[in-house]
Write the structure tokens for this entry.
Amino acid sequence: MFHSLEILRMAQAYATHASTRQQAIAQNVANANTPGYRSRDAVPFADYWQASQSGRAEGRDLIRTDEHPATTSPDGNTVSVEFEMMRAVEARQQHETALGIYSMTRDLIRAAIGR
């Protein structure tokens, strides 16, 4: 019945992607007052999933500079703390979704083996 649990690999990648996004958000907030700093974000999950399937998923390559920042200050900084907080909520929800998938899969496996 459970020859391939691809859903668990995808949930792991989704949780790792959320962690990568949280890392980028933390860097952005830490540099909110740094002149010339460009805000960053993780690549979209679809790109992350393809990279992880081909073995090319490496931390620095998965964070990119925002092409369309929410704001630009006179000193060239493109970090908007409010926008970063919205991103943080999205990353948290993404992580909770991955954990929910793990939990449901665990419950399904337990039911299948009779525990």
